[in-house]
Structure formats: structure tokens, C-alpha cells
Amino acid sequence: MKRHFNIVGPQIRRLRNAVGWSQNQLAIKLQIVGMEHATRKKVCKIESREVWVSDDDLLFISRVLGADPKDLYPPKIFCARRLYEAICEAKASRYGFGFLALLSCPELGAWALQISGTVASV
Fold first, then answer.
1. 61 close to 38: Cβ distance less than 8 angstroms
2. pLDDT value of position 110
3. Global pTM?
4. pLDDT at 122
5. What does the pLDDT read at residue 13?
6. DSSP calls for 39-53
7. Helix 9-19 to helix 40-47 angle, to the nearest 10 degrees?
8. Radius of gyration of the chain from Cα atoms?
9. Is the pLDDT of residue 14 over 90?
10. Domains, the chain
């Protein structure tokens, strides 16, 4: 199982796509504002959650994307009763809270549980 090192990657990808930039364009803009180690490969690894993202990198990214730093985190983090558990669940899922969102819908949740049970039995 692949280990995920950040929970902001999917949101960064979503915001980047919303402004219509490629990963290379984002990397260039990050270099311009001072994130010297920004490359297309680094942006790709951040978005795919393969690398840890430092606080200063988050500030560079939020500034370039024109977003508040809290917009880089999954929305469910802020309303979670148990923050530690919410963060652990976000790290465990490839898409952050994608699987948890499925479980919140009764019809899709039943389907998702059935699929996960089938996969687990294999």
C-alpha cells in the first residue's frame, strides 16, 4: 500500500486546474515568487501526495493560486470532531476524504462497503 505524506495535494490539483495551469506553469510561477526548488516533478509529487509539504511551501502555493492557506486542506478537516482521526483517515485515502464522502451517502455507502468487503476477501 502506498503511503501518503500530505493531505493538501488533491486540493492543490483542483485549484491549479480551476485556473487552467499545467504543473509546469505552476512550478514556474512558484519559482518566480521565491520557491526555488519548485519543478514540474515536485508539483506532481505534491499533488499525488508522495512528498511532505512544508509550511513555507504551503504559503507560496496559496499565494500563487490566489487562495487562502486553509483552502488547501480538505473541508471536512475543519468540521471534524476528532481532528487527529480525520487527518489519519485523509492520509490513508488516496483521494483524501473521497471514500468517506461515499460512506456518508446511504446508497453509495452500502455499495462502497460491499466493494471494500469483496476486495478484502480476495
1. no
2. 54
3. 0.71
4. 41
5. 97
6. -HHHHHHHHTT-S--
7. 120
8. 16
9. yes
10. 9-72 (1.10.260.40), 75-121 (no CATH)
